[in-house]
Design goal:
Elements (H helix, E strand, L loop, with lengths): L1 E6 L3 H12 L4 E7 L2 H11 L3 E5 L7 H10 L4 E6 L5 H8 L4 E4 L4 H12 L4 E2 L1 H13 L9 H5 L3 H11 L4 H8 L3 H15 L4 H12 L1
Parallel strand pairs: 1-2, 1-3, 3-4, 4-5, 5-6
Length: about 210
């Protein structure tokens, strides 16, 4: 079972998310929070596998809540927001969110996203990936916030995997692209995250886009 905490300030939206998640036999909703502070407190208390986190919430915004949850190693975070990309989105990804979905995501896609993050795979909705790439392309070139020595320590294969992460590919898709076993991809992802001191594969995807800019 994937144990999920739902953090969303709008009660009707929260109820809908809970209803959708509870329809899946392998997902258990263990708690609900209406603000960021409560989300962090419940994450500490319940230790869910995943927090489904709205970005804009009272008392403590979703980015700050995500940062605390990830920094304390309490759970993975799957962020939900509206279509418009802004600094909240980049802040959530840099804070270590494991995935990012739009609020208008279909029910079945939401369930699959929770399962993907539960398997340890980061996830960014395809429409969001395209917007992220466009945002990076439009921004002035700047140095990525990673030690150059750490980048130099990556093997050729790890660099290739990092590039694939920047395209939003899953482990299975990377395996097909690079002609390697999916288990090997997981190993490369784990190693490059460790070398680069990143919290999630989604952070690695953001870094990959910065390196291309």
């Amino acid at each position: 079972m994937i144990r999920v905490l739902v953090a969303e300030d709008q009660s009707a939206v929260r109820a809908g998310l809970v209803l959708i998640l509870r329809s899946a036999p392998d997902i258990e909703v263990v708690g609900e929070a209406a603000d960021g502070e409560r989300a962090v407190a419940l994450a500490r208390e319940l230790r869910p596998d995943l927090v489904l986190m709205d970005v804009q919430m009272p008392r403590l915004d979703g980015v700050s809540a995500t940062r605390q949850v990830v920094a304390e190693g309490l759970a993975d975070v799957l962020v939900l927001t509206t279509f418009d990309l802004d600094e909240y989105v980049f802040g959530a990804l840099r804070a270590g969110a494991a995935g990012f979905l739009l609020k208008n995501t279909e029910a079945r896609d939401l369930i699959e996203a929770v399962r993907a993050v539960g398997r340890g795979e980061g996830l960014i909705a395809p429409a969001v990936t395209r917007r992220l790439i466009a945002e990076f392309a439009a921004k002035p070139v700047r140095e990525p916030a990673v030690d150059p020595a750490a980048l130099d320590s990556l093997t050729r294969r790890e660099r290739e995997v990092l590039s694939c992460l920047g395209e939003g590919l899953s482990n299975a898709e990377i395996a097909g692209r690079l002609d390697m076993a999916e288990a090997t991809v997981k190993t490369h992802v784990s190693r490059l995250l460790g070398k680069l001191d990143l919290r999630s594969r989604v952070q690695a995807a953001v870094l990959a886009q910065e390196l291309r800019a």
